[in-house]
Design a protein that fits this description.
This protein is mainly alpha-helical and 174 residues long. The chain has helices spanning 2-28, 37-48, 51-68, 76-94, 100-125, 132-146, 149-163. The protein contains seven helices and no strands. It starts with a helix and ends in an 11-residue tail after the last helix.
Length: 174
Amino acid sequence: MRVALRMLVYVLIAYLLLSIESPLLSSFHVRMYAPDPALAVVVYAAAAMEFMPGIFTAFILGILKDGFSGGVPLGMHVEIFVAVFLACAAVSRRLDYRGAVLMSVVVVCSSLVSSLLFFVFSAIFDRDFEQFDLIFRLAIPQALISAPIGPIVGGLLSLLDRRILLVDRDGLFK
C-alpha cells in the first residue's frame, strides 16, 4: 500500500510541476529553454525506489509528459523515461547520487541522454520531423537549465518520503 502511495505522490508532484511550468513558459515565450521536472523525478526515483515500482513510475511519468508535449509521437517520452530510469538505476547501484551536486550532474547527463534518445526515436518513428539541428542546439542549454531542478525536486521528494510516507534514506519503510 505504501509503495503505491509513494508512486502516486511522485506522479502527483511531477504533474503539479508540469502544470505550473507549462503555462508560465508559454506566457514568457521561453518554452524551448525549459527545465524538465518530470525527468528529475525519474532520476530521483531510480535512486530512491525499488526497481519495479520505479520503472512503473517512470512509465506513468512518460505518459504524463507525452500529454504535456504537443506534436511528439505518443509514447516518445515513455520510452525515453524508461531508458533513463534503467541507466540511472544502474548508476545508483554503484553511487548514491541523492546529494545536491551529484544529483545535478546526473540530471545534466540524463537530460543529454534524453535529448539523444529524442533524436534517435524521432529519426525512426516520426517521418515528418525535420528539426534535428534544433535538438542538438538546445540539448546543452536545456541540460544546464535542468541541473538546478534535480536537487530541488530530489529534496522535495526526500522530504515527502521522510515526513508523509515514513521512508528512511535507504528507501525502506519504517
